[in-house]
Structures are given as structure tokens and as C-alpha cells.
Design brief:
The chain is of the alpha+beta class. It is built from eight helices and five strands. Helix 2 packs antiparallel against helix 3. The longest helix is centred in the N-terminal third of the chain and has 26 residues.
Amino acid sequence: MSNDSRSKAEAFKTSVEEKIRNLIGEFAEGKLSREQFHVIYERYSSQLAIANQALITNTPEAVSIAQSGPATVAVRDALMGRALGLVIYHNRSGVTVETLGDFEVPVTRIAPILNDISAMMESKRLIDRRVEKVDGEKWLLFAAGRFTTVVTLFKHEPSPMQIRELERLHHDFEEANHTLLNKEQVDSTKLAYPFLIFLKQRSQKP
């Protein structure tokens, strides 16, 4: 391997190592889901292994192989969590307040978890959010509030940052509508829905 080829291989290795450190930092900050992290980390690790092999075996063409394939940003975007739809349940009455977007999940799939949440509310226990995989690409986020429980359907696992954003919208929803929600029956036509912007933003992405 010529000095120029070795320099390029070493520069590529350094670049990949920096990308790995940045990736770890992004995950620690909640910007990536585990699914995104695992796929991208594996990609970078494979590139790093090829770069190391190129330096050991003096095969500069290996670096070109490592650099080929879809751009990492495309991989990251393809695995980004997309909110497809959500359903809002009224905790007091146990009925559905509203369904927004495309929420095609059988009631039998979410009813047991909603029952668990209701039981925890009755016993005054702390309720943490729950994220569960439905099938190959679909995920459910269960978030319980004071008046309502929101179940959101995602394509791909949502990142902690996306979850926090949805929880913020849930809080705003309950604050804006607390007078109407603090009743035995809720008129959904009178409620304001901050969630709409979340669904709209996600639908505009590929």
C-alpha cells in the first residue's frame, strides 16, 4: 500500500471512530431509538473492521468497499420513528375520546395494558410510560395522564426525544381541555388537539 493509500485508510478509520463517538453521544441524549442505534452502530463497526483490515493487509480497495452502500443519513431516516395515529381514552369513563390519524390496532391488543394502567391508577401507583413492539415495524407507546391515556402507533421504534415530545403534547392537551375532561362524559367535538401537529409533521416525511 502506498503512503497515499495508507493515509486515506487511516483518515477513513479516524472518521469512522469519530462517527461512532457521535452516535453514542446522540443515543445518550435521546435523539435515537435503540433500533436506529443498533443498525447504524453495526454499520460503522463493519466499516471500522474493513479499515483495520485494509491497513493490516495493505489492500486499499477495501476502503472503497467500506465507503460504498447507502448513506448513513438514509439508513437513519429510514428507521426514524413515524407516528401513524393515536387513540385517546378517558380514564374516568373508560371510553374512547378520539382517534387521530391511522390507528389500526385490534382492541384486544391494547385492552389488557389499558386495564393494567387503570388498576394502577386506582391503587395510586406510579405509572411509567410503556413502549411495546406490535410486529416487525410497528410499535405502541402508552402514556397515562391525569384525565386521559394516549396510545400512539409508530412505524419503527420512537426515540426518547420523540416520546418526550409526545408527552409534552399530552400535557398541553390535558391543560387546555381540563374543564371538559374533568367530567363523567366528554364531548370530543369541543376539545383542542395539540397532537395534530405531531402527526402532521411525521406524515410529511418519507
